[in-house]
Design goal:
40% of the residues lie in helices and 21% in strands. By secondary structure, the protein is α/β, with parallel strands linked by helices.
Length: 228
């Protein structure tokens, strides 16, 4: 059963989220502030953390920063104030996986939880095993952000890894440019999709044996891309 930690200093919000998520079949634990959240995460393992930004003493931002500093990669969804774009930008920079602005519907929150879990959950077959995937000519370890062609290490940017992993997680499915913008860049709108096309071109240079005749990441004209 998926285990969720809900962190909010407002009792009504905390209890309401706990009750509703429990009804959806999740195993829910709550924390009333950032300090309690850090202690709970130290004592237990969670699949995802729903974390309010505005809390006294230890804010949601502080929790994010401390967890990522300790190399704790638990997925985090931030609860931000409506219209506070800076909160959302800072949250992502501090290591949050997604955000949702208050007020929000349960349906929206559930969709965000499922999306983040799809992106972040991996099947661990042993405590020391690393996950290396063969994508075209490239071997990739998404957990360590490392890639090779043969024995030669290949440099990819953080965003290139994120785009490549999204395509990998959705292989054999058509992924639109808007899907990539929303899930990787977290924008609902973007002035141009040319950015996506440029990233795909750079990734193909590393994945494809013949980049100008792609066989791994193919273009679906008028829509986006598909990893075969």
């Amino acid at each position: 059963m998926t285990k969720i930690l809900v962190v909010d200093d407002e009792p009504a919000m905390r209890e309401g989220l706990s009750d509703n998520l429990s009804l959806e079949g999740y195993n829910v634990q709550t924390a009333q502030n950032g300090e309690a959240a850090l202690e709970a995460i130290k004592q237990d393992t969670f699949d995802i953390v729903i974390l309010d930004v505005m809390m006294p003493k230890v804010s949601g931002f502080d929790v994010c920063k401390l967890l990522r500093k300790d190399n704790n990669k638990v997925p985090i969804i931030l609860l931000t104030a409506k219209g506070e774009e800076m909160d959302r930008v800072l949250g992502l920079e501090f290591g949050a996986d997604d955000y949702i602005a208050k007020p929000f519907s349960l349906r929206e929150l559930l969709a965000r939880i499922k999306a983040v879990l799809r992106r972040t959950q991996t099947i661990v077959t042993s405590a020391v095993e690393t996950r290396i995937h063969q994508i075209g000519q490239l071997k990739v370890n998404f957990e360590k952000y490392e890639a090779w062609v043969g024995n030669q290490k290949v440099k990819l940017s953080y965003r290139e890894f994120e785009v490549l992993q999204f395509l990998w997680d959705n292989r054999q499915q058509v992924v639109s440019r808007n899907d990539l913008l929303k899930n990787i860049w977290k924008y609902d709108e973007f002035p141009t999709t040319r950015t996506i096309d440029n990233f795909i071109l750079r990734i193909r240079q590393k994945v494809e044996v013949t980049p100008n005749k792609p066989k791994v990441i193919v273009t679906v004209h008028g829509i986006g891309y598909k990893m075969l």
